Amino acid sequence: MNEPPFSRKTLMIVLFISLSVVAYWSALSLATRRSFIAFCDVGQGDGAYVRIENKIDILIDAGPDRRILECLGRHMPFYDKTIEYVFLSHPQKDHAGGIVEVLRHYQIKNIYLPAIDNKARFFQEIKLQLLKNNVRIFYPDEGDMIDFSGGYIYFLAPNRDFVFSHSLEQPGSQFRLTRDNLNDFSLIFNLKIHNQSILFTGDIGPDRLFQITHAGFGLLHKSLFKADILKVPHHGSKNGLTAAFLKLVDPRVALISVGRHNSYHHPSAEIIALLRSLNIEIKRTDEKGTIVFPL
């Protein structure tokens, strides 16, 4: 008589291992029901992943290349391949280049970005993939809000008047052309989850910061800029954060997303000195790697 290919003992071992794996991932899923944000180590660029109550996935910028996938693979459940919200601060490669890879591995439902074009090949590919994947595209205005379970996002810049007055229409396209600095069109928004808030600033420059906070909507709603965590603009460049803006936000933590030994010498000594002078805790991805905060 031929013996069965697998003995009962072998089958029991396989069953035990399978059940153990299922139990492990179930326990892990329950353990990660708390919301958190991971500021990803993507080198010289920005990328952050937010998981809200083990239900909603948010990606804020995606770094320059596929390194964002390592962060998502480490912090996003392996069985979840859908990202509900993506926010691209502006169309430069150190913030948006990794979206090309994300679109190849995940389903993105909604993407929010300024309606400003970049003729670089990477961004043209992003636009094609967004259309191919039927991603819903939004161009937020100051004062717009997204409300979701456990939190909300409040957009503070740019406003449509600024975008339209500093760019030109392209026939047949929702994306507009500009010769101005792309950094000036960065999305600024406050993410509030439970009792904590994080202010994202893209690569906004000091002149635009002054305009945004001293006129119109920003002047009337200065309290909306206050946050527990500030994502320091422009990787800690001296052409980003100002003392006045820092005092307005009044954060307890300043997060600097920056690459090790980068050629720009970010973050600048002036910005580090400014943060230290106000006793604000500094967290840097070039020193700590990916940085995670519970929310």
What's a quick, concise take on this entry?
The chain is of the alpha/beta class.
Descriptive report:
By secondary structure, the protein is an alpha/beta fold. It has one domain: Metallo-beta-lactamase, Chain A. Helix content is 32%, strand content 23%. It contains eleven helices and 14 strands. The mean pLDDT is 92.
Jot down its keywords.
7-stranded mixed sheet, 295 residues, 11 helices, single chain, 23% strand, alpha/beta, Metallo-beta-lactamase, Chain A
> What general form does the structure show?
globular
Which class do the helix and strand fractions yield? alpha/beta
Q: Distance N terminus to C terminus?
A: 62 Å
Strand content: 15-25%
The helix count comes to 11
Widest beta sheet: strand line-up: 6-5-4-3-2-1-14
Shape-level CATH architecture: 4-Layer Sandwich
Please give the share of residues in helix: 25-40%
- Order of SSEs, N→C? HEEEHEHHEHEEEHEEHHEHEHEHE
- At the fold tier of CATH, the topology name is Metallo-beta-lactamase, Chain A
Largest β sheet strand count, sense and barrel closure: 7 strands, mixed
Average pLDDT, all residues: 92
Number of domains: 1
Which regions contain 5 or more consecutive residues with pLDDT less than 50? none
